[in-house]
Amino acid sequence: MIKWSSELELGYPEIDIHHRVFLKTINKFLQELDGGIDDLKENLENLLYFLTDYVETHFSEEEAIQKKINYSAYAEHKQTHQKLRDELEGLKRKYWELVHDSSDLFLLKLFISNLKEDLINRWIKHTKNEDQLIFLNYDEDAI
Predict the structure, then answer these.
(1) Among 45, 47, 56, 103, whose CB has the most other CB atoms within 10 angstroms?
(2) Which structural domain, as residue segments, surrounds residue 99?
(3) pLDDT tens for each residue of 97-122
(4) How far is CA 67 from the centre of its chain?
(5) Sorted alphabetically, which Pfam families does this protein's record hold (predicted)?
């Protein structure tokens, strides 16, 4: 379970709400990992659909805010978002190619472990390190 902490707080309410929803959804998924293989697959597919929608909505809104406040590292941050999108697409491809039709519980759990390590931990690191920089010195009146 991943707990919300002040390190994740950016001080920009809309974005902080997005981040909280992300963590709440991830935590709900992680708590449901004790089910059988069919339940795990269903939960995992729901999570992958959520992540796809979340990434598009959240990144688009965050990038729009960056443009409004003339964030100096906008281009680099947008590239980072694209890398995260690409990582998610790669994980989704792996799921549909390797895991979806398999009845191998070990393979499914390995995929979930990789999802947590690769994508979720990367997202947390991104929020703590890179998203924090956006809102350090922004002009609240610019938004």
Answers:
(1) 47
(2) 8-33+54-142
(3) 888 888 888 888 888 888 887 777 88
(4) 21
(5) Hemerythrin
- pLDDT, tens digit, for every residue of 24-36? 988 888 787 766 7
pLDDT-derived band at 76 (thresholds 50, 70, 90) equals: very high
Structural domains of the chain, count: 1
CA angle 109, 114, 117 (to 5 degrees): 125
DSSP tag of 9: -
Residue 44 belongs to some domain of the structure: no
Residue 108 lies in a domain: yes
The DSSP secondary structure of 21-71, one letter per residue, reads HHHHHHHHHHHTTTS-HHHHHHHHHHHHHHHHHHHHHHHHHHHHHHHHTT-
In a domain, residue 25? The reply is yes
- Give the chain's length: 143
Looking at residue 123, what DSSP letter applies?
H
